[in-house]
Amino acid sequence: MPRVRGATVERLRPDDVDAFWSGKTLPLVEPDGPGTVVVTFCWRDPDAEQVLLFANRLTDETRLGDTLLERLPGTDLWHASYRMDSDWRASYSFLVQRTGEQAPWLAAGDQVALRAALDRGRPDPRNGATCRNRAGVLQSVVSLPDAPPQPWLLPRPDLARGAVTEHSGPDGRPTWLYEPPGVDPGQPLPLVVALDGEVWVGTQSLPTTLDNLLADGALGPVRAVLPSSGGRDARWAELGTDDGAGYVVDRLLPWVEQRRAVDRVAVAGQSLGGLTALRVGLLHPERIEAVVSHSASLWQDDLGALVDGFAERADRMGRAGELRVHLAHGRQEWVLAGPHQVLAERLRSAGVAVDAAEHNGGHDYAWWRGGIADGLRSVWGR
């Protein structure tokens, strides 16, 4: 995505900055050509020595200098402009190096520490659109004019709400159950297993999305179970492996069925959770009817062996041709885009019904939080 000169900021003179900044909504989005715009990110800080823009997958962690803002001479305004396709959506934040201090992104000793530092940037004070990242840190969100709508995210007044209850799950970790409004507790309903439940019951509020989908008639009544990942170490040990798939089928589902009536199951996940959701569906077609996967970590496993054996397993279990998969990735995920396209074709060849989707974004809850509604509608919508 090429860095360019933003026309508005280019015309600014030092005496114009206060008037420009007053009441301004950022980032600036200016017309460019058919299907493209120029996006200008801005920050004001008289004590800054450097300002880094950390925008999901626009910023390359191996080339951080490419998204350092430049200072408008004679002012405290920092800026950077990029030519973008007009359907881009991403989270972003700013990190500031103050005079005499070490840059926060240089203090990190390794890749893990660097990512932790980048994930704790500051949101844009001139942008009211926000979401939280996996660490729970508030970030700003840029949604360009042609980005797909996300109409089911926010709570609506006077809307019947489902009940969310917290439990100690089958291994003692926090696990939440969502019950839709106006449904008899004994009525069998479809069940959504939403991995990384601490995110989806907290910062991203999947229950709100389910309430809104039901109210609009875009999805029938569903129950949901949202198991916690158990923390970073447990997440890496389980998700994306056979251990994670076994946990869902052998432990979590029986635990739910002791408490709720279930008639069919979909598993939804993102990143490592997306890889796990795919693995569960391919390994256990007798239990899993549908998968919603976003940005699956296919760099860890391309699932080729599981796909090759899927048709035989499904036929043996009497479920051939019944698995439905919504497989989505971000166009800016340069490591994952190609493998996702290859996997979609392999799944189709194995008899899986695949709805493949590409979002102009990165590895990012900014689009995942709306994409989960798209995915559920794809596999179970009306």
Would you give an account of this structure?
With 382 residues, the protein is α/β, with parallel strands linked by helices. It has 12 helices and 17 strands. It has helices at residues 7-11, 17-21, 104-107, 111-118, 197-200, 206-215, 232-238, 242-257, 272-283, 304-316, 337-349, 365-380, and strands at 3-4, 28-33, 36-44, 48-55, 70-71, 77-85, 89-98, 130-132, 138-143, 163-168, 174-179, 189-194, 223-227, 262-270, 290-294, 324-330, 353-359. It has an 8-stranded mixed beta sheet with strand order 10-11-13-12-14-15-16-17, sandwiched between helices. Strands 1, 2, 3, 5 and 6 form a 5-stranded antiparallel beta sheet that branches. A hairpin with a 5-residue loop joins strand 10 (163-168) and strand 11 (174-179). The radius of gyration is 22 Å and the shape is elongated. The two termini are 38 Å apart. The mean pLDDT is 93.
In short:
With 382 residues, the protein is α/β, with parallel strands linked by helices. The protein contains 12 helices and 17 strands. The strands form 3 sheets. Strands 10-11-13-12-14-15-16-17 form an 8-stranded mixed β-sheet, with helices on both faces. Strands 1, 2, 3, 5 and 6 form a 5-stranded antiparallel β-sheet that branches.
Sequence-ordered SSE layout with sheet pairings:
Elements: E1 3-4, H1 7-11, H2 17-21, E2 28-33, E3 36-44, E4 48-55, E5 70-71, E6 77-85, E7 89-98, H3 104-107, H4 111-118, E8 130-132, E9 138-143, E10 163-168, E11 174-179, E12 189-194, H5 197-200, H6 206-215, E13 223-227, H7 232-238, H8 242-257, E14 262-270, H9 272-283, E15 290-294, H10 304-316, E16 324-330, H11 337-349, E17 353-359, H12 365-380
Parallel strand pairs: 12-13, 12-14, 14-15, 15-16, 16-17
Antiparallel strand pairs: 1-6, 2-3, 3-6, 4-7, 5-6, 7-9, 8-9, 10-11, 11-13
